[in-house]
Design goal:
Length: about 250
């Protein structure tokens, strides 16, 4: 993980340096608690046991904060706690123990693996969360690559930064999930206008992967990316959707 900032080393135990701001705690917090921003606009302890408490914006409490109170959080920077004993240079992850950090990647199926940064010294962590999340039980795959509204027109989905794919052409297996029917759903290599899509006549698709999605199950499609690791996708009905990368060959 590359550091793009030059913050001074924290001068004392239970201190930090970096980009900070204020927010409301959803529960009682102490220094070093990793928190996610919940839909209620408050910061709650992150927990690798569930995707909902691992994804999105992550911050760290810089001092004790009482539930429902305004407090200070670190967005990016250095944290020091002299009771820590990190392996220097080792990656730090969201822990399956609520609010904690760990250097042992979660390994139980259903737990989420998300990098928070690395140990700068045995007592100091460089905090700069990675946006990539994968299911611990999925091996190579089930990496979350999209969470939002499904598009009604061809829209780019950049896979180049996920699971080591980088900017390369690849064959990718994707799973699409939504609580509501997206109906006709298609994927293609970015900009490949020869790949035909017609939501009204699903059997008339040529050269693109297309299926009919309903909310009862994930839909899995195989697609090639362009030379930069980008695909495009489109849905007949717009829904809030999640997209996972299950596997790839490059």
């Amino acid at each position: 993980m590359t550091r793009y900032y030059d913050f001074p080393a924290p001068a004392a135990d239970l201190s930090c340096s970096g980009i900070k701001g204020t927010g409301t705690a959803g529960e009682d917090l102490v220094f070093g608690n990793v928190c996610y921003l919940k839909a209620d606009g408050k910061f709650w302890k992150a927990d690798a046991s569930a995707l909902a408490t691992t994804q999105g914006r992550l911050v760290v409490a810089t001092r004790p904060i009482t539930a429902e109170s305004l407090g200070e959080f670190l967005f990016i920077g250095l944290l020091r706690d002299d009771s820590w004993a990190w392996i220097v240079g080792g990656t730090v992850y969201v822990s399956a123990t609520s609010g904690e950090m760990t250097q042992t990647p979660p390994g139980t199926p259903g737990e989420q693996v998300r990098k928070l940064g690395y140990a700068d010294t045995p007592a100091t962590v460089w905090f700069d969360p990675d946006s990539t999340i994968r299911d611990a039980g999925a091996g190579v795959g089930k990496t979350l690559v999209y969470n939002g509204l499904s598009p009604l027109d061809w829209e780019d989905l950049d896979l180049s930064g996920f699971a080591g794919l980088w900017a390369n052409k690849a064959l990718v297996l994707l799973a699409f999930n939504s609580a509501g029917d997206m109906n006709a759903l298609a994927v293609r290599a970015k900009g490949d206008s020869s790949q035909y899509y017609d939501a009204a006549v699903e059997s008339s698709s040529y050269g693109c992967a297309l299926g009919h999605h309903d909310a009862s199950a994930d839909m899995v499609l195989l697609v090639t990316t362009d030379a930069n690791g980008i695909i495009q996708w489109i849905s007949e009905t717009q829904r809030t959707a999640t997209v996972y990368m299950l596997a790839y060959i490059k």
